[in-house]
Amino acid sequence: MTILAIGVLLFALLHGVAAIPEYKSYVKSRTGEKWYGPVFGLASLFAIAVMVLGWRSSFVATVYDPPAWGWYVNYALTFIGFLCLGVFLFRGSLRQRLRFPMGFAVLFWAMGHLFANGDLASLILFGGLLWVTGAHMVVAAINGIRPSPEVRIGHDGLSLIFGAALYGIMTQLHPALIGVPIFALSKAG
Question: What is the number of other CB atoms lying within 10 angstroms of the CB of residue 95?
Fold first, then answer.
């Protein structure tokens, strides 16, 4: 569980820097404008890899029993989260309206997973990221951070289609990447 908590903390620190313009400017001055995005992306991927490693090596310690319907709520909220992820990746007007589409994606994803999982590792991962993302969005809003004003025609539809497609892909890759099957289909027999 320690590795998982370190991964969440690392992710929180990275995104805390991005939410505060003074810190972000300092990091950009050290890495250079051109390299900030790739360096931040690689550092974020590293934090995610540490979280996945920590998750997969965690023992099961039940904290609460999730409701029987929690899986269905998780499917719905995670789907909405993936739609928000699609909105983040494209330059449509939905991105302007949501202001923090990636933040909303993480919020929906984390909330959904807390409905379906009641173990300590889930609380550390999903609860931690829920708290971090909420704090990041508040700090970013206070500091006036907004998405790029560039809006491209047709990107709203593309973003929703892409988000839905990513959700479908993740439902297939989840067992291999995370080690947890999403759908427990019984075999008729």
Answer: 26
